[in-house]
Amino acid sequence: MKYISTRGAAPVLNFGEAMMTGLARDGGLYVPEAVPVMSKDAIAALAGQSYEETAFRVMRPFLGDTFGDDEFRGLIARAYAGFGHAARAPLVQLAPNHFLLELFHGPTLAFKDFAMQLIGQMMQAALEKSGQRITIVGATSGDTGSAAMEAFRGLGNVDLFILYPHGRVSEVQRRQMTTPVEANVHALAMDGDFDDCQARVKDMFNDFAFRDGVRLAGVNSINWARVLAQVVYYFFSAVALGAPHRAVSFTVPTGNFGDIFAGYIARQMGLPIEKLVIATNQNDILDRALRSGAYVTDGVKPSISPSMDIQVSSNFERALFDAYGRDGAAVAQLMAELKAGGFHISQGALEMLRATFASGRCSEEETTATIRAAHAATGEVLCPHSAVGVKVAEENLGPTPMITLATAHPAKFPDAVEGAMGLRPALPPRMGDLYSRPERVTRVANDLAALQALIRERTGH
Ligand SMILES: *Cc1c(COP(=O)(O)O)cnc(C)c1O
After folding, report:
1. What pLDDT shows up at residue 300?
2. Nearest atom within ligand 1 for CA of residue 386
3. Ranges for the Threonine synthase N-terminal domain (predicted)?
4. Which candidate in 128, 163, 172, 425 could, as Cys together with 197 as Cys, close a disulfide (CB 3.0–4.6 Å)?
5. Amino acid 142: pLDDT
């Protein structure tokens, strides 16, 4: 299995190399040269299997010889052992044809644990073999950083630096990033918003002297290994509802387009997914782009679903690559135009995207109203991101069963939930001491040179 860049001008890599590289050297994102298809029988045989066995069968064809079969099974087992629910990703029913996939039973209570726990295990295993040590730098709007801290703390061959926008993450998210005691993980609170954090991380990757000097690797949602780990729960939930004999649709609360792109890969692998519905909050660039064809940035408006407060959805580049017939030069041109504010999606590409994706937007008031209404109707307490999904899903219900991804536990965003329904959701007992652990964080300016100096100093490069 070979991986190629969406901009067509970076080295072709195998799975292990693509995982360690993150962003391609031409600025593009790695995608499989060809997506392996699972036969109808192979999908049917997933019925009744554990999450871990499903993960093994779905991901194995993408890995080449990076890991042996027994080794990979061991990594999967370790990745999901710390989850607080035996099913890992349980489905609950909200309405006659509407289901909620609870992806928030991992150690940091958001879906990002599914990918991050596994990529931590996979990177450490690969580094132990090669005897190398790497530096991971990631930007976060909150949940990526906490998931990464939890997944990488204490791993012997990795130093992890997480940049988060100072004052713009929830207290639970912040504490999950600032309370791990292991010396190899570093929380950095930066002045600016998430896009500023993401831009500085991209700058570090584009500075090849720095990149090679500290052996920089990335775990943001552009990392192919993260996307791949997320493909699994599309299979797991669809099969639980009768796939491949029955089609399903998914609605996905979307920010960086990573989670929903995993659904697109599942569909390409042969999973019968009718519609993939993009659900955005008031930061609605994707919804506007799909409706109008104009992908134009518009500044970030802070919302009560902050993990989706993003104006440039990095992984959308992967969908564009396919929509433009895998023409890397065309994608590179679009991304150059984006730097200057935006671009128009060609008619052909727009038709391809609309054949796969639907979209909708949920305002702040609608988010609050949906949390309240879902609780009254079902007793289910939704986090604000999941509420965005449920609202948009309700506009897209039809004869095909709809699965909405619940991306975080409500206790991760207690203020928004309390504001909506008057009850403060409690943390699961296993995390009860989060508010009493000491915090450790470094405040940093939005300044590339200063950030690089700090990282060099702490890693000894
Ligand atoms: C990261 C995140 C999202 C958005 O996921 P993308 O892969 O960036 O689209 C949605 N909800 C929550 C709770 C998240 O942490």
Report:
1. 86
2. 11
3. 2-80
4. 163
5. 79
Q: What angle do CA 256, 260, 263 make, to 5 degrees?
A: 150
Contacts of residue 334, Cβ cutoff 8 Å, sequence gap at least 6: 295, 320, 324, 343
What is the model's pLDDT at position 263?
98
Q: Does ligand 1 come within 6 angstroms of the Cβ of 112?
A: yes
pLDDT score, position 461? 85
Beta bridge partners, 160, equal: 136, 185
Q: Which residues are annotated as catalytic?
A: 112
- Centre of ligand 1 to C-alpha 154, Å, is 25
Q: What's residue 218's pLDDT? A: 85
Q: Give mean pLDDT in consecutive 10-residue pieces for the chain, a chain of 461 residues.
A: 97 96 90 98 98 98 96 98 97 97 96 97 95 94 90 96 93 94 97 90 93 91 94 98 98 96 98 98 96 92 90 93 98 96 97 97 98 97 98 98 98 95 93 92 98 96 85
Ligand 1: residue of 103, 141, 143 to mutate (most ligand atoms within 8 A of CB) is 143
DSSP label at residue 454? H
Name residues whose C-beta falls within 8 Å of residue 60's C-beta, 6 or more positions apart in sequence.
69, 72
91-107+224-421 belongs to CATH 1.10.3720.10: no
Cβ-in-10-Å burial (0-12, 13-18, 19+) of 143 comes to buried
- Alpha carbon distances (Å) from 342 to 29, 336, 338, 350: 19, 9, 4, 15
* Closest residue by Cα to residue 434 from 92, 180, 54, 128: 180
Which of 112, 123, 168 is closest to 141 using CA atoms? 168
- Nearest atom in ligand 1 to the alpha carbon of residue 259 is 7
Q: What is the pLDDT of residue 73?
A: 98
- Here the tokens at position 376 are 């009254």
**At a CB cut-off of 8 Å and minimum separation 6, what does 447 contact?**
none
Element (H, E) at 415: helix 414-421
How much distance in Å is there from the Cα of 307 to the middle of ligand 1? Answer: 6
Residues listed for the chain? 461
**Tokens encoding 8:** 């067509």
* pLDDT score at 310: 84
Domain map (residue ranges) of the chain: 91-107+224-421
**pLDDT given at position 21:** 86
